[in-house]
Design brief:
Blueprint lengths: L8 E2 L8 H11 L1 H11 L3 E5 L3 E5 L2 H4 L8 E2 L3 E2 L2 E2 L16 H20 L2 H17 L3 H5 L1 H18 L5 H9 L5 H19 L4 H11 L3 H33 L2 H15 L6 H5 L2 H13 L5 E6 L3 E5 L2 E5 L4 E5 H4 L27 E2 L2 E2 L17 H4 L3
Parallel strand pairs: 1-9, 3-10
Antiparallel strand pairs: 2-3, 4-7, 5-6, 7-10, 8-9, 11-12
Helix pairs in contact: 1-2, 4-10, 5-7, 7-8, 7-11, 8-9, 8-11, 11-14
The structure holds protoporphyrin IX containing FE.
């Protein structure tokens, strides 16, 4: 949304009082709560209350600040939902840590991803996908009715085998993720799941090398184990299984003409070579389909950060003065449906990405999807998210 920006710094519009009123609106309207405010204030930056007060940002230019660790610090929470760090024995994972500890933890995680890359994560994925394809081809009605769970198992197998050389109990991955901020029974189940994952990881063939890498990065063995547990469970298993399930659902309702083009493209490319990263580059229809899924259904639709100090926020709706300790809420879902960037944003149209310039407007862990790592790293969180250093 571009609303004639002026150069004057302004106050953030909107009010965040009457918490109950806001929360009822949010629960009943979902994203409609944010759209209503955007239209009311004619601004992509405005005040909200999601149970906690915050400043909502829904344009790419404004959202960039959430990746600038000179201005932002992280908390182990998603708005009013606190992550259950008890699942990690009280350790804070890289995603929620700050300063030097964060730099060390993230350096460690990027190194671990590099090692997984070298030890053929792509080949592991292809092998496991083939196994599951055989199972799915002979699926009975029970398996068909639990297809989402089967995709989650596949994702669990890929990541744990690629990083630890073992496949863990997929149910433990599920309960651990589900209890991320749950209470009571959900939390008890999550604790049992997390405990099972920790045992499997500790007994895995890759643990010795992983702990050596942790030692070299200057972090303790326990911290390292908890960082990988969080990354594999929350970031990769949570993010990728969500994206894969949406891909499947979208495939099911995809217009037949596009589906046919995608199918023929895959058959043609694979008729003269094996599945590889190079082969994928020759499949633009498939690539654009995935980009469109990630645009319309970003697996991380909102994320959060708190301001370290007063500063001026640059956005498509102008410049706003922001105070210290404000909670910023980046709404990727809305930025990906910005009608000033994407024609008919609510329509599923993979062919829109034939215009490659649009890829810059897909936001990921490192900011825009296409962005190269900057040559001079200011802070470590400025580096790409591990997803971008992995080529699955
Ligand atoms: C489609 C899949 C994925 C999406 C959309 C995604 C998106 C994101 C986003 C938006 C963040 C920032 C969250 C925040 O700061 O609150 C993030 C962080 C992170 N992601 Fe992903 N991610 C995906 C998959 C993965 C995978 C496969 C891995 C690792 C194997 C991974 C590892 C991480 C890690 C470790 C962080 C925290 C980085 C830090 O410490 O600053 N993600 N991701």
């Amino acid at each position: 949304m571009q609303v004639s920006p002026d150069c004057e710094e302004k106050e953030v519009p909107g009010n965040d009082k009457w918490k109950l009123f806001h929360v009822v609106n949010l629960v009943t309207k979902g994203h409609g709560y944010f759209y209503g405010k955007r239209d009311k204030y004619k601004s992509s930056v405005f005040r909200i209350n999601m149970g906690v007060k915050g400043i909502h940002i829904c344009d790419k230019k404004g959202i960039k600040v959430l990746f600038d660790m000179e201005k932002i610090y992280k908390e182990p929470a998603f708005g009013r939902l606190n992550y259950n760090t008890v699942l990690l024995d009280g350790y804070t994972p890289s995603m929620f840590s700050n300063g030097i500890p964060h730099e060390k933890q993230k350096t460690f995680l990027l190194q671990i991803c590099e090692i997984a890359q070298q030890s053929k994560i792509f080949e592991t994925s292809v092998k496991i996908i083939k196994e599951y394809s055989t199972i799915w081809q002979n699926a009975d009605s029970k398996l068909k009715s639990t297809w989402e769970q089967s995709i989650m198992h596949l994702t669990s197998d890929i990541f744990t085998e690629a990083f630890f050389g073992v496949r863990v109990d997929p149910h433990s991955m599920y309960t651990c993720l589900k209890g991320s901020w749950g209470k009571g029974r959900a939390l008890r189940k999550a604790l049992a799941g997390a405990s099972c994952l920790k045992t499997s990881f500790r007994e895995s063939p890759a643990i010795t090398n992983i702990l050596k890498t942790a030692h070299d990065a200057g972090i303790s063995e326990e911290q390292a184990l908890m960082d990988i547990l969080f990354m594999l469970n929350f970031n990769s298993y949570g993010g990728v299984s969500g994206a894969l399930r949406t891909c499947m659902a979208r495939l099911y309702v995809l217009e037949p003409e596009y589906k046919e083009k995608m199918k023929n493209e895959i058959i043609t490319v694979l008729s003269h070579q094996n599945l590889s990263v190079e082969a994928f580059k020759e499949m633009p229809h498939l690539n654009n389909f995935i980009l469109e899924v990630l645009r319309m259904h970003p697996p991380v639709p909102v994320f959060f950060g708190r301001t370290k100090d007063n500063f001026i926020l640059d956005s498509e709706s102008g410049r706003f003065s922001i105070k210290k300790d404000e909670l910023l809420v980046a709404n990727v879902h809305m930025a990906h449906r910005d009608e000033s960037i994407f024609d008919q944003p609510n329509k599923f149209m993979p062919s829109r990405f034939e215009n490659e310039a649009l890829i810059d407007h897909i936001i990921f862990g490192y900011g825009p999807f296409n962005e190269e790592p900057r040559p001079k790293i200011i802070t470590v969180r400025d580096r790409p998210s591990p997803l971008q250093s992995l080529r699955l």
